[in-house]
Amino acid sequence: MANAYVQNEKVIPAYRRKVQEGVPPTLRGVGLSDEDRIRREIIMSIMCNWRVDKAGLEKRWGFDFAEKFGPELEELREEERRGFVQQDDTEIRVVDTGRIFVRNIAMIFDERLRRMEREGPVFSRTV
User: Would you say residue 54 lies in a domain?
Assistant: First the structure.
């Protein structure tokens, strides 16, 4: 959804019951702020296109990428040292050897995940 994320009911009988009742079979949802939407765009671009157009995001959203995402870019330098990404002033590129770790790379920009990790265990771990 454009301005929200929703998660479907996980339990099949509950999912079916909701559908039969004509109720959306969702378990939870959250409305997205502009910050969430920017981060979603970055994560989706990494996961789907193997790159982030920093200059395009700056123009579209009106911010300085290096200033706004300084901590993330610093963390990304470790992935650069590992040979998984390359970056310059205008873009971030996931190189062939980094593609298997693309989820880990994208997670660097997931602020909601970081907040959840600070609050307790998070499931769906990666390598």
Answer: yes
